[in-house]
User: Fold these one by one.
Assistant:
Number 1:
Amino acid sequence: MDLSGFRDPTIARGLIDAISATDTGPVKIMEVCGTHTVSIAKNGLRAIMPERVTLLSGPGCPVCVTANRDIDTAVALSQRPDVIVTTFGDMMKVPGSYSSLSREKAEGRDVRIVYSPLDALTLAEKEPDREVIFIAVGFETTAPLIAAAILRAQEQGLTNFSVFCAHKTVPIALEALVNDPEVQIDAFILPGHVSTIIGSQPYEFLAEQYKVPGVITGFEPVDVLQGVYMILKQLEEGRSEIEIAYHRGVMPEGNPTARELVERVFEPVDADWRGIGVIPGTGMGIREAYAAFDAAKKLPVELPEPKEIKGCQCGEVLRGVILPFNCKLFARGCTPEHPIGPCMVSSEGSCAAYYRFTDYGKSDASDG
Amino acid sequence: MCLAIPARIASIAEHRMATVDIVGVTRVVSLDLVPEAEVEDWVLVHAGFALQVVEEEYAKETLELLKTLPFFEDQEPLLAEGA
């Protein structure tokens, strides 16, 4: 086995041997972070797992799980003449039911990519006669930044800045996957940077109620291998706990300042996840006290019925029901150059990661 | 989108806005979420905000990893996405 791609092949070899030496039945482990997905695909980690261990990619890419209706809303907002829509780059090309922000921009709408929500604030200061809307997608990692931006906007007395909030939270969504009879997940590799903010406690119920272990780990291939090993040891020993293999970046309590800001600005609401459907309490609604910064309330839009993309199986990919290779469109019409579904559009999408890094036409394609 | 990039704080100005170096690019980021951060600390930066103070060794390891990721080939879009 060629391990030259690993930073430390000796450690990698040791972990691979340790993984092989564990004694478990068939195990399905899902990673729930786009960066883990990229790391697993890039380093060929699926291929070096023992046959009994299946690594599945979950709904870890925030752009990918954004429902068509939310993208349709962003598109409709961009069509208003008095509005500048701002968002992160990954959102631009994701198709909604009838259009994308990228297409709207090409047709002359004022849609701009920003690096930070603070850039949207600066833009709002410069363009006082127009409403600057930030389209916010992301998980717990990104939510505190949006909260901080809203609080800054309030402090500065900005009246032309608002947020369309399609944020989602991870832990309860994992419960929906655990309960999904089509998938049957045995353990989770939990996201590093989401956990930087929320810590390990919010996942504890998975281990306690469902006996599904989880390990929070980093993004190096050896981090992922260590996470897999720790999971297999738990299963072998009949334990189910939430462990942190990423003490460099995650404290058990997370980041209390960030959590406090999120709590102040947002309240839990239902969220529509692509492929999964509505999961109660996994969205972030802007609290009434900050309604002046809530684009959904400030500029309500009428939408046509959402329409799904024909043939696209992103929903099943996101739930780990099928692997990217098993989608009928994968590499046959849907490629990173000409993506059809969001999992191929986003750089962190499962399909894009598998397309770029795996020999999808051959052995790796057939083992899932 | 949930990727955070290590950066070193060069200076801190008004409103806890810090100048940091991110892989050779100078950026101004908010320290709103890390009240404990000081000049020369390494922080994880995500979309214009520092999320967490981290050890130098970890920061350097992560930077090496980031350079191997596909979207890093074109640095500006990575930063734009807030990855």
Number 2:
Amino acid sequence: MWKRLLMWLVVGYLVAAGAWVIASGFGRKEQLLNVACDPTRELWHDMNAAFAAQYEREHGMKLLIRQSHGGSGSQARAVIDGLPADVVTLALWTDTDAVRKAGLLEADWENRYPNRSLPYVSTIVFVVRKGNPKNIRDWADLTRPDVEIITPNPKTSGNGKWSFLAMWGSVVWRGGTADAARAFVTAAYRRVPVLDAAARGATMTFAQKRIGDVHLTWENEAHLEVKEADGELEIVHPGALSVLAEPHVAVVDANVRRKGTASVADAYVRFLYTEEAQELIAKNFHRPTNAAVFARHQALFPPMDLRRATTLVPSGKWDDVQKTFFAEGAVFDQIQIAGRK
Amino acid sequence: MSSGVSRRALPGFGLGLGYAVVYLGLLVLIPLAACLVKAASLGPEEFLAAAWTPRARAAYALTFGVALIAALVNVVLGTIVGWTLVRYEFPGRRLLDALVDVPLALPTAVAGLVYASLYVKTGWLGQFLEPIGIRAAYSRLGIVLVLVFTGFPFVVRTIQPVLADIDVEFEEAGAVLGASRWQTFRRVILPMLIPPALTGFALAFARGLGEYGSVIFISSNKIFETEIAPMLVLVRLEEYSYAEAAAIATVLLGFSFVLLAAINYLERRSKRYGS
């Protein structure tokens, strides 16, 4: 008797569960997965809502865009290991290209969309305490003995890599030699009391634990940090010179082909270049690449001389940037060992 | 007993063992084997170059060192807490007992963040410690502190049931035979506590070796100083050097296995001796 009842319960459960799976399969709305790096959470939240609304207007179909956030490198690894991303928006060229090396992107991914697949750019700026008590204005101030710097570990953080490149570039772009640049960054990393593993950790160290005098970070993160801190912090655009941070977008060809989402994903990325999207980008403190929109937000983005990181290596290739500075035993490892004496 | 000739008193041995083998295989052995296979894709020289650099050796030494110290501290603290909870009746005992498990439920990253903000020079505790020259945040001491926190429940929870099982008659017998309180403790109770203390030590130690989330938030992650081995694995992964990362993991695994086996052996011996 009980056995029978139990059996019917199990059968009923299986039928219901199966029906649920099938029903959700049929009634499915279109879905996209955007796998992104950490500091763009707020941006994609706004952007996805805007694009989904536009998509519903034009196609009469609901579109669900899911976001995944994490460190740029670990996000790239997740996609390589099978996370079915339709679009990747990572902090570093080398991370996007690692996805290509795994066979998921076409070789020409960088030239697929306008402006080398860059709907927006950013840069590295300083965040300092209110009133800038240590008077930190330019890159050279970083090596002063009374200044402590907060920046995440370039080995594990995209933000850390851009900060390193900006420091190195601040010497080279003003005509200094590679030796002078090395001496400068060695001295600067000696002024770093904590090498946080990721960008948000460094933000907490600086803003909440009040360690350090200057925090090197993405311009958009800097704006959020200052906003959160209620007038305790302010932004410095160091010497009007910094690195051009290039967070590329790419449609993951192999995945969209398999999932049949190629056209939606393409429309999504193209949407990023529309005026509406560019406004959202500016609102989230990334520098829009549409000149008209950029001009409208001049107050947020003081003019800066932004240089590409690839100008730091003779070949002008990102692979060599990685190899020269961040690979095992390369410049960063060497200066860390030199810096601990 | 439908099959008739089973010599076991309890039914279900075959099924139970089958499940155990399958699940251990799926959950433990296959992932570990995958790690070893990945590391084995390197030649012996490449393996050494990846896993036995001065920097990696410093990271292993730090990882095992802090885990050992934290486990030792936990044995002392855990025994005291376990003893108090079992032997004394006092208001709030239940609450205290429940608090012991909190470190297991809390995400360890939270523990790391909270400890760091307590012990920095502007923090509640740090403002008193820094002036007298104790740097607890962003130092090795800080790592030990969070590992004590995350490993704490293991010792308490292994000691408690053993203490509760010790009959008062043993102690009374000791007293009747003329032993002092201290002698009774040392000769009667302590030998019975050694096996569970060793188990707790092994558990706390193992937890300390693998702990990542809390440590990276309180460690300054400086090479040769406060860089733990799991952090080094992450650094290699960020370079897309999967095999090199696996090589470091393999060395960690090897050391841990040997150490845990040794503790296990000690525990068995002391059990035999105790009974």
